[in-house]
Structures are given as C-alpha cells and as structure tokens.
Design goal:
It is a single chain. Helix content is about 30%, strand content about 25%. The chain is α/β, with parallel strands linked by helices and about 450 residues long. The chain folds into two domains: about 210 residues, FAD/NAD(P)-binding domain (3-Layer(bba) Sandwich); about 170 residues, D-Amino Acid Oxidase, Chain A, domain 2, CATH 3.30.9. The site of flavin-adenine dinucleotide (FAD) has 44 residues, from α2, β16, β20 and α10.
C-alpha cells in the first residue's frame, strides 16, 4: 500500500473561481463505498479532464472515473493566469532547433483548437482571442525581448514590435518601454474554462470532487483509497502535475514552484472613461523570467501575478500570501498609479511543476499505470494535448503528434530535498535581483 503524504488545499481567495458563473454548484459527489471502473483518472484539471474526454470518445462503453481532492476549478487549473499560449514558451532554438519549435507550435494550436471546440459547443464564457504582449520596463531587460523577437523571426512566426505612445494607448499605462505582440494567444478565466469542460463529459464518465486519494494499493486491479470509499480499476492515470511524485511511480523529476496572483475589484465606468478609453482586454508576460504577468480582463479587473516560492509541503501559509499581496500592491501601483485606490478583491497562491530541461512527463509506469505532468507553467494547453495523446496511447492509436510527445518527454534528474529547496531559493533570489522594475 503506497500512502499519499502531501495533499492539495485551497491557498487563499480563488478569484477566477469566485467570478466564474455558477461557481457554487457542486459538479461531482465524494467517493463513498467501494466502486469499480475500467479506468480511474486522478486529477480533474485540464490534463485529467482531457484524458477523460478523449478516452470516452475512443472507448464509448468504458466506465471512467475522474477524481479530485478539491472541487473542479479550485486546483491550479483554475488558479493560473489564463493564457492559452500558442508559441513555444522559453524559446531557445540554440538547444532545440527551429523544427522542434514548429512542432510545439502545431501541438499548442491543436490544444487551443480542442478547447475552442468545447468553448463553442458549451458556451463557456470569458474566452478572448486577444493575443499576448511580452514587455519590458527596464532598459536592461530589453535584451529578453530582442532574443524573443529574433527567435520568432528565425522560425517564421509573426510578431509586431510595439513601443512608445502606441503601446501606451493599447495598454492604458506608459510603464513599459517596449513589447513584442503575438496574435495567437487566447485569454480566459481558467476556472470558468475548466469547469465548462465538465459539461462535455459523457454519461460514461463519473466525476468525483473533494475526494483526495489517500493511498494506492497497486495491482492490477489498482485500488485507490478514500475516506469511506475506494475505486478499483485495471488502468490508473495520474494527472496531478505538481503532486505526481506523491504516488510512488515518479521520483526526482519535478520541482513544484509556488506563485501568487491577485485580482482587483472591477474598474468603474468613470475610471474606464478617464483612463482606459478605447483599451481592449489584454494580457502581458514579462521579458524577464522573474517578472510580473499582468492582465486587463474582460470584466474590467486588473490581474497581477508574480513572486516564486519553493514550499516543500506544497501548501501556502497566510504569511506567504501576505508577502505576495504586498509585492502585488507595489507592482500594481507602479503600473497604474492613477487608480491606486483600487483594492484587490482576491489574492491566492498556486503551484506549477517545473522540470529542469522543460520536457514534460508522459510515462508508462507499467501494469496499467500512467503518469502525466511537468507542464512548466504552460499546462492549460500542454495538459490538454498531453491528456489527449495519453488517451490515444493507452488505446493504441498512433500519430505523428503522439510520437513527438513520446520523444520529447524525458525530464532530467532533479536533486532531492533539501538540496532542491536550497538550490532553487538561491536561483530565485538571483533572478529577482536582475528583474528589478519588471517585477
Ligand atoms: C498563478 C499561476 C499562474 C499560471 N499561469 C499559467 C498560464 O497563464 N497559462 C498556463 O498554461 N499555465 C499557467 N500556469 C500553470 C498551470 O496552472 C498548470 O500547468 C496547469 O494547471 C496544469 O494542469 P494539470 O491538470 O496538469 O494540473 P493541475 O491543474 O494541478 O490539476 C491536478 C489536480 O490533481 C489534484 N490532486 C492532487 N493530488 C491529489 C490526490 N491525492 N487525490 C486527488 N486529486 C489530487 C489537484 O487537486 C488538482 O486539481 C500557472 C500556474 C499558477 C499557479
């Protein structure tokens, strides 16, 4: 029997979830009693739901269980910045080459279009084909933008350089010197999107919420243990991203990194008229790795994300949330001093899974156990396509995309604790020092 030591919790006030429609509606029961399924998927984030949706398409008579420790939308899938990123992230063609970047782009587009199909069919709100700015405030961080632009050029991806009054007009702030704008990114309320996907699950899928897997007895059949219940299945897919190493089939491959976000109250009509006249909803990532992500949302709020932490028990304390809130205030007031009376209605933390070489986990652990994760901060789209192709893989469906995923899912070794925390914290401090005003 393998005991699961670290379980997820709600870390703070989940702004996207609370501002999503029908956020109080419970989408699944708790697991109670002993039940049997053909396949059990742990994790109802973008990755786990994508496995379930595709597996059900290919195997309509299979009995499928999806279980999550939290409610759908409470996990990282509902806490992130809501960028559906089309271009390869952290582009560095010197290591991977242009062809690799094009293949990743093709997979990302596949993931975005798959999500778009569900959005259209089930009228999921807050979807905006707004593109994305990557921007720099500090002169010293302009080189990050230049690198990005030159990589995009090499691979033949379209982009636009924006600066000065044009950038000011499009963002409603003159904080940034320069930006690279790319068109294919989509902005969403991620909690609304992930909860919307549940509507697409057919009757053959049973969704269980608020049901942490506390232990697994590996078989086959494998038996997942819950408080007052169990699920047995010959196939188990672990789609728990940062928690993947808790189930005993993966070691030293993932560094779980905490980051934090805040969302303001909506801007008033008067503030919009005076300061954001003609500004359309936008999303911006920083030219510096440790910089701040900012959004001006469809419902006229400002979103701020920054600050990284390595928290070995995978839980954010009140103290950590308080520190993040202070940093968010500084970042917000620097960019929008003219509306600094605005308060944050929500502040929360969330964890994502980093791998050292940026390759994800797509693993057949044997005896009907499969592990997915390591989405490196871009898991909305990546989790969607990894989940899809995992269902294909289990069902014996081959494709060029599946082969690409298999060839590029070998995350390198990561040192164990306490070395991971010591090395990681040192690196985070160094990065923050150079990001300066881009935080
Ligand atoms: C603040 C923030 C901003 C981010 N911004 C972006 C962004 O803009 N775009 C982007 O693509 N990505 C972003 N990310 C990363 C993104 O959120 C993740 O890559 C994505 O959530 C991965 O999806 P997933 O389904 O693989 O994992 P998760 O969303 O983490 O889902 C895993 C699920 O497993 C469940 N689970 C864990 N343990 C157990 C257990 N024992 N029993 C039952 N269930 C369990 C969890 O409750 C969770 O719901 C961001 C992350 C954070 C924290």
């Amino acid at each position: 029997m393998h005991k699961v030591e670290k379980l997820p919790q709600v870390d703070g006030e989940l702004g996207w979830l609370e501002t999503a429609p029908e956020s109080n509606v419970r989408l699944g029961a708790r697991v109670k009693g002993d039940q049997e399924f053909d396949i059990a998927i742990i994790g109802a984030g973008f990755t786990g739901l994508s496995v379930a949706l595709r597996f059900a398409e290919i195997n309509p008579s299979a009995r499928i269980a999806v279980v999550d420790a939290l409610r759908v939308g409470e996990g990282s899938s509902g806490r992130n910045a809501g960028f559906l990123i089309d271009l390869p992230h952290n582009v560095d063609f010197s290591k991977t080459g242009v062809e690799h970047a094009r293949s990743e782009h093709r997979l990302n587009m596949f993931g975005i279009e798959r999500l778009r199909g569900f959005k259209d069919r089930y009228s999921i709100p807050f979807w905006n084909d707004a593109g994305k700015f990557m921007a720099a405030h500090e002169q010293s961080n302009l080189k990050g933008l230049d690198n990005f632009a030159s990589m995009l050029q090499q691979a033949g991806f379209e982009y636009e350089l924006v600066s000065g009054s044009d950038l000011n007009r499009r963002l409603g702030t003159d904080y940034y010197r320069s930006a690279v704008y790319t068109r294919g990114n989509v902005l969403v309320n991620p909690a609304a999107l992930v909860r919307g996907l549940v509507k697409a699950l057919p009757a053959s899928v049973s969704l269980f919420e608020s049901s942490p897997v506390q232990a697994i007895e590996y078989g086959p059949p494998h038996k997942l243990q819950f408080l007052g219940g169990s699920i047995s299945a010959p196939i188990v897919v672990q789609a728990t991203n940062s928690y993947s190493e808790q189930f005993g089939k993966l070691t030293h491959r993932i560094a779980p990194i905490f980051t934090y976000a805040s969302l303001t109250q909506p801007l008033s009509d008067d503030q919009i008229r005076r300061y954001f006249g003609g500004v359309k909803p936008w999303g911006l990532t920083s030219a510096h790795q440790a910089g701040t992500t900012v959004r001006f949302t469809d419902d006229r709020r400002i979103f701020i994300r920054n600050t990284y932490d390595i928290l070995s028990d995978l839980k954010a304390t009140r103290e950590k949330l308080e520190l993040a809130w202070h940093q968010h205030r500084l970042s917000f007031e620097a960019r929008f001093p003219f509306v600094k009376e605005m308060t944050f209605e929500y502040t929360w933390g969330g964890v994502f899974a980093l791998t050292l070489n940026h390759e994800p986990i797509f693993k057949n652990a044997g005896e009907g156990v499969y592990v997915l994760g390591g989405c490196n901060g871009v898991g909305v789209v990546k989790g969607t396509y990894l989940g899809y192709y995992m269902a294909d893989y289990i069902s014996g469906i081959d494709s060029e995309n599946l082969r690409f995923v298999q060839q590029h899912s070998n995350p390198s070794w990561i040192p164990p604790e306490p070395l991971l925390s010591i090395g990681g914290k040192h690196r985070l401090t160094r990065e923050l020092g150079t990001a300066k005003g881009d935080v």
